[in-house]
Design goal:
Length: 95
């Protein structure tokens, strides 16, 4: 049985041609559009997969199509099977 205490996980998404198109636009406008696109995409995934109020997205990553979210192990397993998700990994501090 999974832990019920929320921990930080990183979620990385499958290939998305729109992400790559926006990332190729090196203008300030392009960077802003990419930030908005990813934030909305990640928020929509969480809202459609997990119950509202049970998670805390801490950031969307731009260098890769991914985000960090505080969730339980059970929620991480749910996200692993979500459409468009490539990898869900718990954050681990390196010694």
């Amino acid at each position: 049985m999974g832990s019920t205490n929320p921990e930080l996980y990183f979620v990385f998404m499958n290939y998305d041609p729109e992400y790559h198109r926006l990332r190729a636009d090196r203008t300030k406008k392009g960077a802003s559009e990419l930030d908005l696109y990813l934030s909305k995409k990640h928020d929509e995934l969480l809202a459609s997969t997990l119950q509202a109020g049970t998670y805390n997205k801490t950031l969307s990553l731009v260098i890769v199509d991914g985000f960090a979210v505080e969730i339980t192990e059970t929620q991480a397993n749910v996200l692993r099977s979500a459409n468009g998700v490539r990898v869900v990994e718990k954050n681990q501090e390196l010694a």
